[in-house]
Amino acid sequence: MSSDNLNKVKELRELTGAGIQDCKIALSENNYDIEKSIEYLRKKGISKAAKKSSRDAAEGLIVISASGNKASITEVNSETDFVAKNNEFIKFCSDISNVALNKAISLEDLLNEKINNQSIKDQIIDLISKIGENIKIRRTDFLNSTKGIIEKYIHNNQNDNMGKIGVLISIDTNNTSEDIKNFSKKICMHIAAMSPMSINEKDLDVNFINKEKEILKEELKNQGKDNAMIDKILVGKIKKVISDNTLLGQKWIHNQDLTVDQAIKEFEKSKNITLTISKFIRYKVGEGIEVKKTDFNQEVQSLVGA
Question: What is the DSSP letter of 138?
Answer without folding.
Answer: E
